[in-house]
Amino acid sequence: MIYADNTCEEVGKYGNRQVPGNFTQSADLANFRAHWRYAREDAAFQKLLATTPYYGIWDDHEVVNDFGPLQDTRDSPPYSAAAHLLPIGLKAFLDYTPIRRSQHTPNRLYRNIR
Known about the structure:
Number of helices: 3
Number of strands: 0
């Protein structure tokens, strides 16, 4: 999925070359969506998504590292201590990850898959 709490610079942590991303750490919907678009710009990944079913699993970096319903704020820039990121990250996740929605629990992410 994405690491919304990171950026993608031209040179990676270990000196590896990367395709730089045009986004910052996600503190608003525009940057969450920029992370998702960046990941899907790769032609090989587009082909994989077009030909292979997958189960999208929301990770602890989809919003900020180690987040939860009561730990989804940060107080260092670009974040604001008053802004809850979970609803924004969830919106972006559902925009880019097709999940059948239940009428009774439309935002439920967990599934029983056999």
